[in-house]
UniProtKB/TrEMBL annotation:
InterPro entries referenced in this protein's UniProt entry, alphabetically: 3-OHacyl-CoA_DH (IPR022694), 3-OHacyl-CoA_DH_NAD-bd (IPR006176), 3HC_DH_C (IPR006108), 6-PGluconate_DH-like_C_sf (IPR008927), 6PGD_dom2 (IPR013328), NAD(P)-bd_dom_sf (IPR036291)
Protein name per Swiss-Prot or TrEMBL: 3-hydroxybutyryl-CoA dehydrogenase
Pathway(s) the chain acts in: Lipid metabolism; fatty acid beta-oxidation
Pfam families (UniProt xref): 3HCDH, 3HCDH_N
Domain annotation 3-hydroxyacyl-CoA dehydrogenase C-terminal: ranges: 203-299
Family: Belongs to the 3-hydroxyacyl-CoA dehydrogenase family.
PANTHER family on file: 3-HYDROXYACYL-COA DEHYDROGENASE FAMILY PROTEIN (PTHR48075), 3-HYDROXYBUTYRYL-COA DEHYDROGENASE (PTHR48075:SF5)
Organism: Cylindrobasidium torrendii FP15055 ss-10
Residues at the site labelled Important for catalytic activity: 157
Any single biological process term in GO: fatty acid metabolic process
Length: 299
């Protein structure tokens, strides 16, 4: 098997995804993790949650208290992006916003070593567009320098809750090198995940299939076809889904679902991806699902 060669990983974003990625990197891949978020409260809350998850794993006899302590000790917060300078791979897990991700990857390319892998946990945004943003102004994308810079970028899409979900989608940009892909895959496997590969299309495989399903459930509610509880119960008991689609939308975050659906719709112009008005209105109202205390359910 190909060695990932990652001695230290940087994780940008300590929200539900970033924290989970930091935890599996420290616990399963056993590499030191540098964690950064612009909000230090988010980092503190994330680390407190990691402590709880590790304590639960110890209490269930899955890991020893030494392993839990070692994993926790591998995670260190850093106060800015320059803290990632000596990492061999960085994984970005910030909100779904192309301009934000492009600015971040441009900084990564300046700060990190030319051999470092620059991975995005985006759930739908084009990895090719993110990779293009790493090329410095004045450098041609077709030059050797331009190609080598963008070749380090890859999509590494984890699923929520990261410690529980077994999958990572691996998404090559059209510029990604085989070496980047092989090492990113080896890292995901070391972190305990199974890997599937998707082309760089809007939503990749997972969200191109999941989001129309969630949107249909919201439209069914909007059209009064069934109650919230009956829509979710139908899918849970009729199809053995662990959560109904409305509960799952709350769990993912309605703002995230809307952002993904907008990327799908804008990227394909296909009406099957048009977000429902109800989803838009709920996000307008600040009802983001579980994380904000209200979505289709109250928390
Ligand atoms: N973080 C870490 N672990 C968590 C967790 C969280 N946020 N939430 C639950 N868990 C753990 C629990 O601690 C529990 O662990 P143990 O087995 O060690 O006790 C385990 O998950 C099961 O939890 P529960 O028994 O409390 O509840 P459950 O049986 O209903 O399972 C669930 C919870 C795993 C979340 C399950 O409901 C499920 O699989 N739901 C679907 C999740 C899903 O589809 N995720 C993908 C979303 S799409 C995505 O992430 C990608 C994207 O781009 C949008």
């Amino acid at each position: 098997m190909i060695a990932h060669g990652i001695r230290t990983v940087g994780v940008l974003g300590a929200g539900q995804m970033g924290l989970g990625i930091a935890l599996v990197s420290a616990l399963r891949a056993k590499v030191p993790v540098l964690l950064h978020d612009k909000s230090s409260d988010q980092v503190a809350n994330g680390l407190a949650f990691a402590d709880k998850l590790l304590a639960k794993d110890v209490s269930k006899g899955r890991i020893s208290s030494e392993e839990a302590k070692e994993a926790r000790d591998r995670i260190s917060p850093v106060s800015d992006l320059s803290g990632f300078r000596d990492t061999d791979m960085v994984i970005e897990a910030v909100s779904e916003n192309l301009a934000l991700k492009q600015a971040i990857f441009s900084s990564f390319a300046k700060e990190l070593s030319p051999s470092a892998i620059l991975a995005s946990n985006t759930s739908s945004i084009s990895i090719t567009k993110i990779a293009a943003a790493t090329i410095p102004k004045g450098v041609s994308a077709a030059s050797e320098e331009g190609k080598a810079t963008a070749a380090r970028v890859v999509g590494l899409h984890f699923f929520n809750p990261v410690p529980v979900m077994k999958l990572v989608e691996l998404i090559p940009a059209i510029q990604t090198s085989q070496d980047t892909l092989d090492r990113a895959r080896a890292f995901a496997v070391a972190a305990g995940k199974e890997v599937t590969v998707s082309k760089d299309v809007p939503g990749f495989v997972a969200n191109a299939l999941l989001m129309p399903f969630i949107n249909e459930a919201i439209t069914a509610l909007e059209n009064g076809i069934a109650t919230r509880d009956d829509i979710d119960k139908t899918l849970k008991l009729g199809m053995n889904h662990p959560m109904g689609p409305l509960q799952l939308a709350d769990f993912i975050g309605l703002d995230t679902c809307l952002a993904i659906q907008q990327t799908l719709y804008n990227g394909t112009s296909d009406s099957k991806y048009r977000p429902s008005i109800l989803l838009e209105r709920m996000v307008d109202a600040g009802w983001y699902g579980k994380k904000s205390g209200k979505g289709f359910y109250e928390y």
